[in-house]
Amino acid sequence: MVEDPQSTLEIQRAEKPEFLTKTRFDEFDLPASVVNGLGDAGFTYCTPIQARTLPVSLPGRDVAGQAQTGTGKTAAFLVTLLTRLLALPEKNPLLPSALIVTPTRELARQIYEEAEILARHTDVTMAQVVGGVDYLKQANILRQGVDIIICTPGRIIDYYKQGIFKTEGIIALVIDEADRLLDLGFAQDMRYILRKLPTYEKRQSMLFSATLSYRVMELTYEFMNLPEFIAVTPETVTVEGIEQSLYHVGSDKKVSLLLGLLNREDWRRMLIFVNTKVGVERLTHTLKGNGWPAEGITGDLPQRKRFRLMEQFKKGQTKILLATDVASRGIHVEDISHVINYDLPQDSENYVHRIGRTARAGKTGRALSLACERYVFHLEPVEKMLGYKIPVVWPADDWFVEDRSKPLAPRRRPQPKRATQRRTRGTENKRRDYRKPRTKPKSSRFPGAFFGFGPEPQPELKPEPQPEPPPKRNQTSRSKKHPSPSGPATEPRKE
């Protein structure tokens, strides 16, 4: 029996997950190669941000979208870029056509990996240009020519100043997580890049941000061409499907409660947020000392090690990952069951960013927050932004587990290296000989001597007379008084 294609379509629509819309990607006028790439990625139906962005971006209009991580905005702008580049009649192969700017290296890598899948059936080339990677290798890739550059601001500016990166061929620009770019201090860098690009009338610009703050809106009005504003609220995107709990606990009991939650919760993969780099290091050491396989990721780690830890976390080789807010950008793992705010975020917007790491792609998740006396003051802004109180759970005494880890040894400050580590005794003595008190400066060096002023003359001190040493007796006088017996006889004196 031949299966009716219409019935098959109806079955696919019926099996659509609830977090997706009824809009399918193949309803848009997309190249067949792009549709095949979407199929390889497992994308059939659009998310809300994709369904609202593509009708505006595909015709070439500017878009300013408000959406959290995990909403599918990456696929929205990648599909737009691939469609536009494939429609170009001709282009210079040595000049890039599209630029994607991200705040962190991890996010750039995440976008690059997704772009590789979507562009698998096309001839579009791409490269990631970030710090911490071989400078000459990236420069050679740019010189050979790529279509799409995925970069962080600092490294791409460096290549521009060296004449390696040229902007004449840029027809499309994407600014991802614009709010984080500004929060991390890239405001001046972004304005520098935008001024070097072709004017907004000659390019398409797409900006995505978790919040359309005043600073973000300044960028849109200054460097975008009448963008279409699209907003997907955090309440309907990231918080939905996440079970939140709040624990009030003292700072001295946070570790014990965390160890107890690790024993009580049914978790598969966990992400723990700490506010400081030192806190990540100490808590990682504590968890390992109690038998929990945890790894910490901070901005101080070398790039290769950060990528390696991220790959281990994605593959499930590392079950617990600790991170700061900066380092967490680009952590897009689908199977994170629990997010723990060991420290409440100092910025309320980061709370939604953090807990949005779980319950991705329509799944459910748990978000646990520990409110100690140090960070409890940040709870009110978080709840004000959410519009409701986070449910409070009061732990029993048996929830607290004793910390059996050894204290982390304090870091020693590196001692400054001497110019010469080893000196011989003669060299050391010679150096000491030069340490003589300075002589009194001459009057000509006195300030104001040029104008005829000088210090008051001091009376000269005459040295005290020294007794003259007794005359030395020479050999001649001695020989006259005491003639040698072996010498010639002297003549008798004449009267």
What can you tell me about this protein's structure?
It is a single chain. The protein is built from 19 helices and 13 strands. By secondary structure, the protein is an alpha/beta fold. The protein has 2 domains: 17-234, 3-Layer(aba) Sandwich (Rossmann fold), CATH 3.40.50; 238-399, 3-Layer(aba) Sandwich (Rossmann fold). The longest helix has 14 residues, at 73-86. The protein starts with a helix and ends in a 14-residue tail after the last helix. The model is unreliable at 1-16, 234-238, 476-482 and 484-495 (pLDDT under 50).
Keywords:
about 500 residues, alpha/beta, Rossmann fold, 19 helices, about 10% strand, disordered N terminus, disordered C terminus
Number of strands: 13
Distance between the termini: 171 Å
C-alpha-based Rg, rounded: 38 Å
CATH topology of the largest domain: Rossmann fold
**What number of domains?**
2
What is the subunit organization of this protein? single chain
The helix/strand class is: alpha/beta
Top CATH class of the largest domain: Alpha Beta
Task: Write a concise synopsis of the structure shown.
By secondary structure, this protein is an alpha/beta fold. The protein has 19 helices and 13 strands.
What order do the helices and strands come in, and which of them pair?
Blueprint: H1 5-14, H2 32-40, H3 48-57, E1 63-66, H4 73-86, E2 98-101, H5 105-118, E3 126-129, H6 135-144, E4 148-151, H7 153-161, E5 172-176, H8 178-183, H9 187-196, E6 204-209, H10 214-223, E7 228-231, H11 234-237, E8 242-248, H12 254-264, E9 270-273, H13 277-289, E10 294-297, H14 303-315, E11 320-323, H15 325-328, E12 338-341, H16 348-355, E13 365-371, H17 379-386, H18 425-433, H19 475-481
Parallel strand pairs: 1-6, 1-7, 2-4, 2-5, 3-4, 5-6, 8-13, 9-11, 9-12, 10-11, 12-13
Helix pairs in contact: 3-4, 4-5
